[in-house]
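To make this tangible, this section ends with a sequence with its structure tokens:
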Amino acid sequence: MVPEERMKTEATHKAIAAGGKMTVVHSPVGVRSIVTSSLVAFFILASSIVFLLDRGQEEQVQMAVEHGRQEVQVKLEAGLQEPAIRGTTEEGDASNEECNWSRGRWVYDNVSRPLYNGLKCAFIFPEVACDKYGRKDVMYQHWRWQPHGCDLPRFDAIKLLEKLRNKRLVFVGDSVNRNQWVSLVCMVEASIPDDRLKIRIYNGSLISFKALEYNATIDFYWSPLLVESNSDNPIIHRVEYRIIRADRIEKHASVWRDADIIVFNSYLWWRKQKDDMRMKVMYGSFEDGDAKLDEMEMVDGFEIALKKLTEWLGENIDKNKTRIFFAGSSPAHSWASNWGGEDKNKCLNETEPIYKTGYKAATTDYSLMAMAKSYFRTLEPKGIHVQILNITELSDYRKDGHPTVFRRQFVPLTKEQIADPASYADCTHWCLPGVPDVWNEFLYGYLVHK
């Protein structure tokens, strides 16, 4: 696993300075024109013809890439399936067929993908801006997730911003969750052409994107282990020696308490860096003189954090206001032998997905999400529903989607490292545009069409 990267201090200062003084300009309301009923009828007829032509063209571009590529079909484990969802078209109209968005295939589509231009997104982070940092093949940007038997609702940034008007959405988790946050910000910011109406603000562990015209906020809050820990500093944190405080979550919860939508994520930091790695768990406090430190397996620590989070949600969430999501495990592709490659290269130079139907990497732990679902299920009698974003298996196919060496390196590389890509290639995070955009299409579908 690649260590959690450091954010640029200079970028932080620049962002805060940019947010210090700002002129908010509202777009003038256009003058309404009066049209005759016959003209309206003409536009309706013309629009219908264009729509039918577009649909026909769209079907033609759903092709496999050269070399006779096989379509990828995801075989979803029964224990991790999402509830069946009505199939939806681009407009979100319900069809007669029930569909699970997590079951499907990757379709190469260089017409409707990518959803945005990463080189033009002013809010993208350098650790995921792969094309900016030298990646020449851009096929990874052109894969669209196609569920079996239905379509994902077509992403519409304006519709999402309207849904978020006067609301606050918060991503809570680690750098992979920040990866998803950056993706969503890039997906919506292009629809706000006036730079004075969108800002990014850094405030310690909290990063905020604000769409001022909509009074909408999309936040990311650094909390990699959910409960309080010795890794709570977003820039300086211990990767291998980890301590959580079993009974302390309020410091973090105070940040997301008033949110309208929360997207939690916690997986990466519970994985072992080495076989003998264990989690330290602290009970009590040094201030009260009752501090006690236990040591246990990483998965047991994850269960403690889940239990505390579930307790807090059950006691504090307003079920009539706040919608809660929990993102599934984001798989890494650090062991190329999983798909027939050489481990020494990790995922370096991979340019296509894995095509083996039903592929599951031996190093991807599906049990953590099953545990999360079992805990969140206890909230249902209270009317609190936590929706799992089941993105694990569809992401497991995408060995081609990681930055590897094409990202900003915060510490200059040595000649030895350059000669040995496995020593620093990032096969954990995701290039943007890329796989996290699909995760956000799932989120969009739940928020706008459910």
Q: What stands out?
A: Residues 1-97 have pLDDT under 50 and may be disordered. The two ends are 36 Å apart (CA to CA). The chain is about 25% helix and 15% strand.
